[in-house]
Amino acid sequence: MPNLLRPVVLFAALFCTAAFPQTKERPVRAVTDPGVITTRQSITPAGIPLVFQGKVYGVGFGKDDTEIWVLNQTQLYQVDWRSGRILSNITHNSTPAYQGLVTHQGIPYVAATVRRGNPGLFVVNGTQLQPLAANLGKHNAGGLGLGGGRIILPITAQNRAVVVELASGKTLGEAATGIAPFAAVVSTDGKTAYVSNWGGRTAKPGERTSPAGPGANADQVLVDDRGVSASGTVSRLDLATFKTTDSIPTGLHPNGMAWDEPHARLYIANNNDDSVTVIDTAAKRAIRQLKIQPFAGVPSGLAPTATAVSADGKRLFVACGGINAIAVIDTASGRVEGLIPTGWYPSGLTLSSDGKRLAVTSMLGVGSGFAEKPERRFVHSYRGTVHVIDLPDAPQLASYTRAVADNNHLPLTSVAAAATTPNRTPKAVPERAGDASLIEHIVYIIKENRTYDQVLGDMPKGNGEPSLVMFGEDVTPNTHRLADQFVLLDNFYASGGNSADGHQWLAQANEVSYALWPGYEGRSYPFDGTDPLAIGRGGTIWDMARKLGKTVRLYGEYGGTLPEPPKRRIEYLNRWKAGEDFTAAFNIKPPSAHLTPFFAANYPPYTNSIPDQIRAQIFLKDLKQWEQDGRMPNMTVMLINCDHTFGTTPETSTPKAMVADNDLALGKIVEALTKSKFWPKMAILIVEDDAQNGVDHVDGHRTVALAVSPYTRRGHVDSTFYSHQSMLKTMELMLGLPALSLFDMIANEMRPSFTNQADLTPYTHVQPRQDLFEMNPPLKALRGQPKSAAIASARMRWDVPDAVPSGKLNQILWHSTRGWNTPFPGVKISLFAPYSVDIDDDDR
Question: Which residue intervals make up region (Disordered) (predicted)?
């Protein structure tokens, strides 16, 4: 096979050679094996780099501008950035909290959450990181603010900020903030602080709200008519009384802040608004909103994360995570003067004391490296970076700006857009939204957690590895037959590394900072539409479809969860086998009220205890009614999720039985759709939400995706590089919808998988050879490894996805399907999704 990944990303020459092997204790100046980015963006960072093993969370200059302090997920480093020499490094053995580093007189202060514990503050004392204040709250903390001998630490999940005395570590008090506080700044006299609030202000009586999470006491967040969070604020705190004196509106998801005290200006990066709010701190009000839009005709997604301001107040620097760049803004005019390229997802920046350099952290840096061996690349092997960049003159800034535009495949605003006339000749995948389409009905089917090789690695005509197959043709004959008869997609990647971000990417082609950091801990796990703070400003594809007059029906997706004990699954299976009708058995209320008019209330949302045969039964009855009525929705979104499995939990369905159930349900649904009167104008697009660290010889995020339509290139192998955004873009073009974010705008649409000549031959499903009723044995019947695996599976939490240790589950699934004496293969992950926040097993 040709190297299909190579054109996807281009790294600067500074990454060509490494002087010595990288370890936790020893960052490097360069890497030879940069990771690949699924958004088609390239990375050509400016400045002098340092590449660290693990995500990078914060940076600050030290005792002078020749040294920097860098916080990553395991270490605190003191570095001579010019030479790359490590002056000291301290292992902190804790989970850093966001941008949890500030320096004061060359001394670093760190916010960190002790593993499975509470946020605290730490300070360097010699060669150790000494606790300054402990037990300051629950779950993750936000970014630190420091001034006047005081440190402010927002506690995101608890809507409060803690004030600590710098000298003694004494907790002086705490103040209530807005919803989901993130960043803080403090005045030089220590009397006033500002805290940014992702979730904005508390709602007033009668205002539209939605709960931020499924908990009984969840915050009621202001939302718009699509269920998207609609408020961002900054809280002004009086540190004498520990009271919030003012709540000042900002853009959505206010993130990092910079305070120009001499000029009484506070600059806030609005992550979900592609803007910067300017607050007059003397008048205590917002006076300006600076839109960051250097590109022509681009929707949301630039994702401002942090700000820094020059000493004279004339220049503002804004880290833009979505375009991997720093925007340089003239504060007088508000004009974007240019862009400076960075590593992957810049998340923090600070100016040197002489104002001549920027130190920039990129959380994901150069992409994932390897674990244990170079050929075993792994998603958790993050390699964040710090770049120290000399502030450019005008010619250099112009060159940098051109590079950023090229990296993002986007035209600058100075490029005039050509006027176009809609093409009236219908095509399966139109060239532009608004052109005539051969497709009127899209069925979007979402499944859970499989890699390509686990399922389709045994298909000879694709780029598969048969030795890694776990659920082959005997278990998934319909998936195989559909891939063979229609089109085999062997280079398709899930953009999410877990369900919390996977469902964001497949629904909205974006992921906001709240989901990335993650800010939802202690509130939600937002795979299921239960938290409006996780939804991007562009909204979901089904909301966009409805806005433009298309009809939509939602089955299970964004429907919350339905807790059912795993052992009830066999009961449901037996009732289904006996012929019971489940079409009126469920009455589901979606978490977001705006979904109710087009949500199938009788269809179960996420649970693996209800077999997918029941889901298929419910949907097929609706399809029959649509045929009678002669009307079918333009967009049908359906969740069938039992391929997630219960592991080897005793006396529940085996993994193979659950995957076979999922496959048979898919086959029945597709057959019925292809034999319906709507088939001549239909496209069925099927994808996994993520691949959950499964084993794959190309990459752990390569996943199973299918495209089924009369216009599919029958029997074709399409090895074009695709991702979740590609599928969304294809649906948008078919239905005449605009891009939801810059990521689907620049994605490869799936045109090579389609033709404009219809083949109306319907699909006929096949019965898996695998028994759908096969059960895991009772614990008393097991010994050795199978017993240990059964005990581990029984202890796992199955009511929501990803509440189990994915690495351990993958090994259990491997051995249960391939045999307990078959060695578990090394995990090879050379590519991972943008902004993925996969949680290490030890943190679950």
Answer: 200-220
User: Beta strand pairing status for 150-155 and 145-147?
Assistant: antiparallel
Residue 56 main-chain phi, psi, to 5 deg: -105, 130
Q: Name the region of 813 (left: φ>0; alpha: ψ -120 to 50; beta: rest).
A: alpha
In a domain, 467, yes or no: yes
Asked whether residue 814 is assigned to any structural domain, the reply reads yes
> Within 10 Å of residue 396's Cβ, how many Cβ atoms?
14
Domain tally, the chain: 2
How much is the pLDDT for 367? 60
pTM metric for this prediction: 0.91
Burial class (CB in 10 A: 0-12, 13-18, 19+), 374: exposed
CA atoms within 13 A of residue 665's CA, in its CB half-sphere: 29
Lookup result for tokens 């088939």: 679
Same domain, 633 and 730: yes
Check which CATH number belongs to the domain holding 790 and give it.
Answer: 3.40.720.10
- What gap in Å lies between CA 301 and CA 303, rounded to an integer? 5
Contacts (Cβ under 8 Å, ≥6 apart) of 571 = none
pLDDT value at residue 573: 97
Residues 608 and 703 in one domain: yes
Are 452 and 309 members of one domain?
A: no
Task: Provide CB contacts within 8 A for 205, sequence distance 6+.
Answer: none
Determine the Cα–Cα distance for residues 344 and 406; give it in Å rounded to an integer.
15
User: How is residue 160 written in tokens?
Assistant: 């409060």
Same structural domain, 446 and 398: no
CA distance 455 to 464: 9
- Pairing of β 209-211 and β 220-222: antiparallel
Positive or negative, the CA dihedral 14, 17, 20, 22 is: positive
Cα distance between residue 685 and residue 640, in whole Å: 13
Around Cβ 758, how many Cβ atoms within 10 Å? 15
Looking at the structure, do residues 399 and 459 belong to the same domain, yes or no? Answer: no
Contacts 24+ apart (CB under 8 A), 627-630: 627/676, 627/677, 627/678, 630/677
Note whether 446 and 405 are same-domain residues. Answer: no
In SS3 terms, 325-346 reads as EEEEEECCCCCEEEEEECCEEE
Give the C-alpha separation, 389 to 95, whole Å: 28
684 shares its domain with 736: yes
Could you tell me which residues come within 8 angstroms of residue 768 by beta carbon, excluding any fewer than 6 positions away? 474, 475, 476, 477, 478, 660, 663, 664
Q: Which helix (H) or strand (E) holds 283?
A: none
In one-letter notation, the amino acid at residue 276 is V
Report the DSSP beta bridge partners of residue 360. 349, 387
| CB under 8 A, 24+ apart: contacts of 283-289 | 284/236, 284/245, 284/246, 284/248, 285/248, 286/248, 286/249, 286/250, 288/334, 289/251
Give the domain extent around 532.
441-504+524-820
373 and 476 inside one domain: no
Reduced to 3 states (helix: H, G, I; strand: E, B; else coil), residue 516 is helix
Determine, yes or no, domain membership for 458.
Answer: yes
Read off the pLDDT of residues 206-233 as tens digits, 9 standing for 90 and up. 999 999 999 889 999 999 999 999 999 9
Residues of the chain falling short of pLDDT 70: 1-26, 29-38, 93-99, 113-117, 365-382, 414-419, 693, 802, 826-844
> Given the DSSP bridges, would you call strands 67-72 and 75-80 parallel, antiparallel or unpaired?
antiparallel
Closest CA to 157 of 173, 144, 145, 141: 141
What is the average pLDDT value for the chain, to the nearest integer? 88
The answer to the question of residue 79 being in a domain is yes
Q: How far apart are CA 224 and CA 698, in angstroms?
A: 42
Cis ω before 518 (30° cut-off from 0): yes
